[in-house]
Amino acid sequence: MRTTTARRLSVMLASLTLTVSVLAGCGDDPTGGGTGTTDEQPRSTGDEVLAGSMTELFAQYLDSDTVSEFERDVLERAAETGTIPQADYDEAFTRYQQCVSDLGYTETWTKLPSGVNQVTPPLLDSQEAADRYAEQATGCATGTIMLIEALFNQQQVNPDLLSDSRAVAVSCLLEGGIVDASYTVEDLDRDLEIPPEASFDVSDPAANACLSSAGYSIAVQ
What we know:
Layout: E1 4-8, H1 19-23, H2 54-62, H3 69-81, H4 86-102, E2 108-111, E3 117-120, H5 127-141, H6 146-157, H7 165-175, H8 185-193, H9 205-213, E4 216-220
Antiparallel strand pairs: 1-4, 2-3
């Protein structure tokens, strides 16, 4: 039997797609909530934005005193050019992966069309071990990939900087012809309540890439 589960990413969950948690609440407090674990989702119609431009969004995070030296170097360049290059994202991911490897974990990953790496955690033999891995992987992500990936992902998949990640997912699904033109964020909410009964195949690679890029982790077994 195939079972499917869906849940919002917090800081470090089934895949390393950290956009939602890092950028949650960015509008009023752009440096707050960066390592938070809230699952509360914005209820906007998709008209609210995270910032006026990518350059403005990068600059907001430069005001934080919690960014690492590596993150600050990347953000300073990004604030000048208006973009985080793939090479800077790849360097951040390499630093994260080295840290995880040094702790004895072997992860696998798939590069999404956006250029973001979707991580599959190692198979572990107990919930205690899984919890320990999640905590340690989050520590590795902090100061390396967490913030850089969140911003890079926004740049790649959300050029309009919509604050409602549901709207980002729906836009991608519509553009890919995966859902019909009448599909809304409310439809997405309903589909992800019981993914096996969704109006589209959540296991389809294109659909899964849309959901992952918007911060949803879908596991199909």
